[in-house]
Specification:
The complex is a heterodimer of chains A (about 80) and B (about 240). Chain A has about 80 residues and is an all-alpha fold. Chain A has one domain: ACP-like (Non-ribosomal Peptide Synthetase Peptidyl Carrier Protein, Chain A, Orthogonal Bundle), CATH 1.10.1200.10. Chain A has four helices and no strands. Chain B has a single domain, classed as 3-Layer(aba) Sandwich (Rossmann fold), CATH 3.40.50. A seven-stranded parallel β-sheet of chain B has the order 3-2-1-4-5-6-7, with helices on both faces. Chain B is globular and about 50 Å long. In chain B, about 40% of the residues are buried. The chains are: A mainly alpha (about 80), B alpha/beta (about 240). The interface between A and B is medium-sized, with 13 and 12 residues.
């Protein structure tokens, strides 16, 4: 749980919003562009050691979908 | 005292290939932070020359001068040519760069070259080097989205080059080479993204760049054939910068 909260906090810093909810759609954020996508990909890589291509990232319509993907891939690695 | 050519950032990409080419006619000292990769570079180098490895992480800029000069003294060598290839390119929105991100970029891309150049012009190196060559980037001349501090660090490198060319002449020729985008280990993540790759490769009139296009020019600049060239920013970019 702590890890998830830490991730959401870091995500909110990148997106420059107070709080990020799992139902939030990525393209609804004001600061959402190709460079921000790269920064989120880098964050996921740094925190969870999971590599995501920018093309694959576009499949995650909201924050929750990304978190589900992270959880699945973390389990697969154990 | 044996003469050596020093190449930083020799653990991959352009730096590694320069080391391999230079080793065909010079003893070389290769520097970088990844010891395993430097070992691989050494294996690829010519067996007819001496190859020294100095593992150093340029993020630690404060101790570079002492460590570098101690290495030169301990090994009793003189550096004749210095090619600075070490570099990182962190890509993110300008607003997200932390002070530590910025310092790392400046230390590795710019200050390490400055500190080593200083050491090479001191008595510790016996004679002034014949060449100081910085591998800069077209990003020094053109803005690049998401590369704010990479661009700034390369701009600093080119400005230093101009001043050194004046101050160190006529013994030392100082130049910088500004390659356009070339796919290497450093930027492989950007090239994984099809859209970004397409965007980055737009405008190269002569097709995508290859490492050997740069290496061949480095060999020319270091040779006596270029003996009347100093203080120059040499752009090698397949025509990219010719666009208005």
């Amino acid at each position: 749980m702590k890890e998830r909260e830490k991730f959401l906090t870091s995500l909110s810093k990148i997106l420059e919003v107070k709080k990020v909810k799992e139902t939030d759609k990525f393209d609804s954020f004001k600061e959402w562009d190709s460079l921000t996508i790269l920064s989120v990909i880098a964050l996921v890589n740094e925190m969870f050691k999971i590599s995501i291509s920018a093309e694959d990232f576009n499949k995650f319509k909201n924050v929750g979908k990304l978190i589900t993907f992270i959880d699945k891939n973390k389990k697969g690695k154990k | 005292m044996k003469k050596y050519s020093l190449i930083t950032g020799a653990s991959s990409g352009i730096g590694r290939q320069i080391a391999i080419q230079l080793s065909k006619q010079n003893n070389i000292l290769i520097m970088g932070s990844k010891i395993v990769e430097l070992g691989k570079t050494k294996k690829l180098c010519s067996k007819s020359s001496k190859i020294l490895i100095f593992k150093y992480d340029f993020k630690d800029i404060k101790n570079l001068e002492n460590n570098f000069e101690s290495f030169i003294k301990k090994n009793n060598i003189q550096i004749d040519n210095f090619v600075h290839c070490a570099g990182i390119a962190e890509v993110k929105p300008f607003r997200l760069f932390s002070l530590s991100d910025i310092q790392n970029t400046i230390n590795i891309n710019f200050l390490s070259a400055a500190v080593i150049s200083q050491s090479l012009t001191k008595i510790v190196n016996k004679n002034k080097p014949k060449n100081i060559l910085f591998i800069s980037s077209l990003a020094s001349e053109m803005g690049v989205n998401g590369h704010s501090f990479y661009c700034a660090s390369k701009g600093a490198l080119d400005s230093l080059m101009k001043s050194l060319a004046i101050e160190l002449s006529p013994e030392t020729r100082v130049n910088s080479i500004l390659p356009g985008t070339i796919q290497t280990e450093m930027n492989k993540n950007i090239f994984k993204n099809k859209n970004l790759k397409k965007k980055i490769q737009e405008g190269y009139l002569l097709g995508p760049g290859k490492i050997n296009y740069i290496v061949d020019y480095v060999m020319f600049i270091l040779s006596d054939k270029a003996k009347w060239i100093t203080g120059q920013k040499i752009i090698i970019d397949g025509g990219k910068s010719s666009h208005g």
